[in-house]
Amino acid sequence: MTAIAELAMPLSPGLLVVLGGLLVPLLPVALARLYVLALPAAVLAYTLALPSGEHAAIAFMGLDLQLLRVDKLSTVFGSIFLIALFLGNLYAWHESDRMQRTAAQIYAGAAIGAAFVGDLVSLFVFWELTAIASVFLIWAAGTDRAFRAGMRYLVIQVGSGVILLAGVLFHVHGTGSLAFGHIGLDSPGGPLILIAFGIKCAFPLLHNWLQDAYPEATVTGTVVLSAFTTKLAVYALARSFAGTEMLIWIGATMTAFPIFYAVIENDLRRVLAYSLNNQLGFMVVGVGIGTEMALNGTAAHAFSHILYKALLFMAMGAVLFRTGTCKGSELGGLYKTMPWTTGFCIVGAASISAFPLFSGFISKSMILTAAGSEGHYITWGVLLFASAGVFHHSGIKVPFFAFFAHDSGKRPKEAPWNMLLAMAATAALCIGIGIWPDPLYAMLPFPVDFVPYTTGHVITQLQLLLFAALAFTFLMRTGLYPPELRSTNLDSDWIYRKVLPAIVRGIGRGIDAVWGSLTGIGLALVSVAIDGSARNFGPNGLVGRTVRVGNGVAWVTALLLVVLLVSYAAS
Amino acid sequence: MAQHSSPPPGETRRWLDEPRNVTKVVWTLVAVCALLFLGDLLYEKHPHFAVEYLFGFYAIYGFVGSVGLVLAAKWMRKILMRDEDYYDRDR
Q1: Which tens digit of pLDDT belongs to each residue from A460-469?
Q2: pTM value?
Q3: Domain range for residue A145?
Q4: In a domain, A533, yes or no
Q5: Which of A36, A76, A379, B48 lies 20 to 30 angstroms, CA to CA, from A93?
Q6: CB interface of B with A, residues 34-63, below 8 Å
Q7: Residue A570 lies in a domain
Q8: Does residue A536 lie in a domain region?
Q9: Could you give phi then psi for residue A437, rounded to 5 degrees?
């Protein structure tokens, strides 16, 4: 045991967070609140001090496991995960639910652990742990909807892990290597591993678990959920599938189609889930292009995205917390009593829209520039359209319908101090990164040769965004803008929530009908046989009825006559 | 851009509660957009693609793209929209 403990040194930051998280249920709530702030802060300091290289190699049951690989890519993802955990815990300070607080630490620890592993088996273990730990954040909402959405989420997430394991088996069989490095589609297990990553990354048609489950989680749970699962998948893609051209098309599709849904979706947390999907598309395009600039862009965009997306979910969470709803059709005018939340939401909106001086601007532009300089004409056009589109729904629609628009008459209290503090810190980071990107650029996997703030770049970006705002205004003033309606919009989950159950029910009804008619025929035959027997052999039947003696003698005589004739003829 | 608000009685009206002021905000946006459109004169273009040479390309693309997005999404509602309890009804 000591031998294993020594071999596992230095400990993976992810394991530290998971083990630290296991202590949470043992602590009194007041202490746990402080503890979960100290934990990620201490582990972040520890992480940044780790020497780069490969550590903690363990031979376990004949497998060469590598629990800690420190390089720039793992450190940038590990660090932002820890920052997100800190901010999420601060946001959830008021929460006294031990289960949620524990689940959040273990979930984040698993994602951080996965970012630091160097072999595919350890990746699989952490991959599944993120799925199992995170579902409690959905179930904790306590509603029937949340329970069912959590079940669907769990099946899909665990399924992704099973597919990953199958792919890893093929990969190891074909290449003899367990290393979590570049895999590519040429490896025998490559396609399966790509599908497993793609499910967690919410590729088109594999995406709907995200929009289905995240908006059903608790106020604080969604903030935590938004940070880890999908960005872990982006990290895994960058590790194993950089330069896979198919990802450019997949990513471009991902940026574009969710924004149509976001425009007509009423639940504002679900709008944010669609825009999360759209932002992942930018990162996937960066992985697909695979140049140094593009991969830097992906890592930088993941970093800034985790912050502004958390900030937007925090603001909508505060609205849900205070008003009990997050539906655009029920909200409006909240800026009057929730001015701070409004302000922080606008900072998040400006960041996701990539306004100059906000974080999205300095990261998304790297991916667009990479797409442009590699000559991906159509992809570049789609990304530009998606950039205008994301401003439309996350930048304008979310703050507008929640805080402005028509006055709903709701006058909720401002968010609790801990939520405000968490939002303020996150907003400060969004602006800080936007104004001074160099520290982030220094953390990226490759040397950065990119200047975000050029006159041309600032002007073109402002043109794109403000004319998109003009379009919104034009559509609102002319009444062309579709109103917020209480509704459900069909997405790919329709297939497994309606069509497949209907097919199964149809098959069941078919079996029922065939069974019914078969047994009907059988019963009819039996009753015909019974009726026939009853007719012939019953008390009044031809054979069964009693006859008088005279008639009986006549019968016997007739029979004797027949026998006589037959034997005469035969002789 | 708040519109036709109905604040509870006794509450002081905010600046944005006046439709007049909302209109002011809209016209300010229009003015800023007009200036930005002319912003293309201020710098030398180093585009990746020929289409970027078009004067005000980003502005036009942003406006047309956004209007197209919203109108397409509005049309999608005809096919995709169901009642709020659509998935709960089978139980």
Answers
A1: 999 999 999 9
A2: 0.88
A3: 10-241
A4: no
A5: A76
A6: 36-37, 39-40, 42-46, 48-49, 56-63
A7: no
A8: no
A9: -75, -10
